[in-house]
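Morning, I've got a small favour to ask if you have a moment. I've been staring at a protein lately and its backbone has me curious. You're getting the sequence in one-letter code plus the fold written as C-alpha cells. I've dropped the whole record in just underneath, so have a look:
=====
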Amino acid sequence: METTSTTEPPSCACSGIRFCNRCINSDRVKYLFSGNVQLRNADDVIANQTSNDRTSSLSFALLGNSHKSVCIECGVVYNSSVLITSCADHKNKTDDKVDVMVKGLFVERDVISDQEEADLIHFFDNPSPFPDWKISQSGRRKQDFGPKRNFKKKKVKPADFPHMPKVFEPLFCKVSKEVSQCTASIPYSIAEVSVLEYTSENMSNFDPHIDDTWLWGDRIAGVNLLEDCVMTFVDSNGNVVDAFLPRRCLFLMSSDCRSIWMHGIRPENIKGRRVSITMRELSDEIKQDLAVAAPLLEAARSFV
C-alpha cells in the first residue's frame, strides 16, 4: 500500500512577545494577546534602556490603534485616524493639532532613483560573496553587514569578511551627506548596515523598540525600498503616532526620536514586499576606544 508522507512546515524563529503568520494561532501567541500576561509597558521599557534590566521591545499586545499621525513635511502631529502623507492632508485639521512632537524625525522623499533601488534589490537577492538572506523573528528575513557583536557581553569586533558591498558605496555617500546636513554638519560615518525584508504573506512586523545605545550612536538612518510603509512611534506617555515612509525615501531618527520614542512596524502596514536598509554609526563610547573603533570604520570604508 502506497503511503503519502506530509512534511510539517519549518517552524518560525519567533519567541517571547514576537509572532508571524506561522505562529499567530499558537498557544503561546494566543496567551500573549489574552490579556493575562504581565508585560512591560512603554514607560518601563524606555526608562530601562541603559540598565542591566534592559528590555528593548514593547509587545503589540499592549499597543492599541494609532489615532495620531505626524506630517513628515512639517513635523506637526495631529489627531487623525487617517494617515497623513503630506501637508495637503491636514490643511483643514487646524483644531486637531496636538502638543506632541517626534523630535529628531526627518524624512526625505526619493533619495535614490528607480535604477538604484533595482540594483540594491538585485544585490540583496544575489549577495555572493556576502551571506544570503537569513530567517529572522516576526516573519522577517535579514542580512547584516558590519561588525560581529554581542550586546549582552558588550563585545564587538570586525566581521569575518570585513568589507561592504560595492553597491553600497554611492548610497553611503548620499546618506552620509544628507544626515550630516540635518544634524549641524556633524560627519556621519556608517559602521553597520542591517537589511530587513518584510512581506504581507509572512505577516512580517517589528515590535516597537529602541535600538541599542551602547554600540550605536544617536543617529540612525534608513532607506525604504519597494513600497510605501508606515512606522509607528510610541512614547512613555502612551502616545502612539504613525509616520508615513514613502518608497525610496531616506528616514533619519535622532535626538528624542531615537532615545525616548520606540519605533516599530505593524503587520497590517505591510502590503506586499518591503525591504528596509538601516545604517548606524558607532556610539561615542565606542568611538573613544580607537583600538576597537578604527578597524570597524576601516572595514565599513572597504567596498568590494
Remarks:
- The radius of gyration is 20 Å.
